[in-house]
Design brief:
By secondary structure, the protein is mainly alpha-helical. It contains ten helices and no strands. The protein has helices spanning about 5-15, 15-45, 55-65, 70-95, 105-130, 135-150, 155-175, 190-225, 235-240, 250-270. The radius of gyration is 19 Å and the shape is globular. The two termini are about 25 Å apart.
Length: about 280
């Protein structure tokens, strides 16, 4: 994906509210598909019916590809994530919707999200094109960690990224509990019951998502401290580790359901978020 294509996309989105709206909502729908499928796979793992499939993006894509029109749907998700990246880049360049949308901190957050979705889009499109390989997300996480640890200062970099994930996960969960997402959504046309349902999706889904991010970050910090890339974990290994807590597989099932709810919340955002 060239910078020129991304720049053209950002300029196109900036030229009209309709283009920006379609781009943002398409991206949110694609994000919801991945989280809903990942959560479903994690539920199966917790119940012992996973069939060996990883509960991560790779597993979700394999699940989707096996359905009717699967290859088309995988491509659609990849394009949706490209839309998500372009939307976030447009926020960097022109500011986000809502109060103080042009603040430097919000532009920086949008830049970080754009990088995240660029990586995710590349992964999905590579899978769709048949060049994504068969390595799991856990193996890829360990490979990347091992490579970075070999760099000068790599141990500090892995630790810093892990710490950022921990902080980001905690902040994500706290903001979800505080329902700060309400200021970005227009729910005035919904009945009180439906507004509460959407808020429940946002709270439960946000807490689950934040929990997974924080746990994955903790493992990255542990890998840096031990100077051992085998301690790093992708989403699948992170989720499976939850079964080793006193709550056993039921904690995994609870978090997995939360991820499915976050997928549903992403679809709600695709309908009612102000972009």
């Amino acid at each position: 994906m060239s910078a020129t294509v991304a720049d053209e996309g950002v300029r196109a989105v900036s030229r009209g509210g309709a283009a920006r709206e379609v781009t943002a909502r398409s991206g949110l729908v694609a994000r919801g598909v991945l989280y809903a499928l990942t959560g479903l796979l994690a539920v199966r793992v917790g119940l012992g019916t996973g069939g060996g499939r990883e509960a991560d993006r790779q597993g979700a894509l394999q699940e989707l590809a096996g359905k009717p029109l699967g290859p088309f749907l995988v491509w659609a998700v990849g394009v949706g994530l490209v839309c998500m990246m372009v939307w976030r880049l447009s926020e960097v360049a022109f500011g986000a919707a809502g109060p103080k949308g042009d603040a430097a901190t919000k532009r920086l957050a949008s830049a970080a999200r754009a990088v995240f979705y660029a990586v995710a889009a590349y992964s999905v499109l590579s899978f769709a094109a048949g060049s994504g390989g068969t390595r799991s997300g856990d193996e890829q996480s360990r490979d990347v960690t091992a490579k970075v640890l070999g760099w000068p200062g790599g141990q500090w970099l892995v630790g810093a990224v892990g710490a950022a994930l921990v902080v980001g996960g905690v902040v994500t969960a706290v903001l979800a509990v505080r329902r700060t997402f309400r200021k970005h959504m227009n729910l005035s046309g919904l009945s009180p019951q439906w507004r509460r349902a959407v808020e429940l999706l946002g709270v439960a889904g946000g807490v689950a998502r934040g929990t997974v991010f924080a746990a994955a970050g903790g493992f990255a910090v542990h890998a840096a401290v031990r100077y051992d890339p085998s301690q790093a974990k992708g989403m699948d290994d992170t989720l499976r580790t939850l079964t080793q807590t006193p709550a056993g597989p039921w904690l995994l099932v609870a978090v997995a359901i939360g991820l499915m709810l976050f997928g549903a919340f992403s679809w709600a955002m695709a309908r009612w978020r102000e972009v």
